[in-house]
């Protein structure tokens, strides 16, 4: 019997990449966040019988449910708490319940923001979670809702996601570098820039091993999924701009005019983790996946953007 996959959030960065990779596994049905109107799912629709998510899952009858939909406006979440909660907590929980009901496994994506980021070394999956923002809190509660409702789950925590599709830090820096004489970029937050393509390809590889596995398979659970290495926002921006200049982009800002600043010099509504580095030993050992250095992904995305793909 052919595997059927239901992908929620097909228009986002990760969802867009998943639309290509997941087709390797079988028949793919794609639904966007807007089509399900996840922002209102939690208001009076907390019973599966009256839930559009349940109706969709019951109709499709997938073997795999992949949830790439999320509320990711980190600063706006501080005031749009109800909306963030509906999309990041209530909807994933309902989706997980519906998936379990039809016998499907579920993939869900989370974030480094579930940690406080005060640790000096990369976080491992068993480290204490301590989100500092509404976004981080809702993503953590969403993890718990999924894990409770669907035993056959894979939750991938990732960070600093970017790609050729959608808006992200790399594309913002590339645009500003062509317009401005000076840039100021935070240098005291560290992490691993991770492409949507790497997340999608790794997800697909792991699902190829896990689809059909029973609930008591110890490999179900939470994993860190990021590119290799680490950097800070200033060094990341500097690398992007230098590589773009070498590739012929009309870069205006000079290297020496990209100034490093501290987090406290760039106030925002939501507190960010200072250390967003995630240890990926568990996922590499469990599934044999390869997670190349973050610079590899930057180079690939710059090539795609230059070629207009």
What's the structural blueprint in terms of helices and strands?
Blueprint (H helix, E strand, L loop, with lengths): L3 E5 L4 H9 L5 E5 L1 H4 L15 H9 L3 E4 L13 H21 L3 E7 L22 H16 L3 E6 L2 E2 L6 H9 L5 E4 L3 E2 L2 E2 H15 L10 E4 L6 E2 H14 L11 E4 L19 H7 L6 H13 L3
Explain what you see.
With 309 residues, the chain is of the alpha/beta class. The protein has one domain (4-167, 192-229, 272-293): Rossmann fold (3-Layer(aba) Sandwich), CATH 3.40.50.720. The chain is 38% helix and 15% strand. It has a six-stranded parallel beta sheet with strand order 2-1-3-4-5-10, sandwiched between helices. β1 (4-8), α1 and β2 (27-31) form a beta-alpha-beta unit. α8 crosses α10 (294-306). The radius of gyration is 19 Å and the shape is globular. The two termini are 35 Å apart.
In short:
By secondary structure, this protein is of the alpha/beta class. 38% of the residues lie in helices and 15% in strands.
CATH class: Alpha Beta
Between the first and last Cα atoms, what is the distance in angstroms? 35 Å
The tally of beta strands, per DSSP, is 12
Number of domains: 1
Order of helices and strands: EHEHHEHEHEEHEEEHEEHEHH
Assign the CATH topology: Rossmann fold
Helix content: 25-40%
Please name the fourth-level CATH homologous superfamily: NAD(P)-binding Rossmann-like Domain
The biggest beta sheet, please?
6 strands, parallel
Poorly predicted tracts of residues: 43-49
- Nearest-integer average pLDDT: 94
Question: Which of globular, elongated, flat, extended, rod-shaped describes the shape?
Answer: globular
Question: How much beta, percentage-wise?
Answer: 15-25%
CATH architecture: 3-Layer(aba) Sandwich
Number of helices: 10
Q: Strand pairing plus helix content: what structural class?
A: alpha/beta
Which radius of gyration do the C-alpha atoms yield?
19 Å
- Order of strands across the biggest sheet? 2-1-3-4-5-10
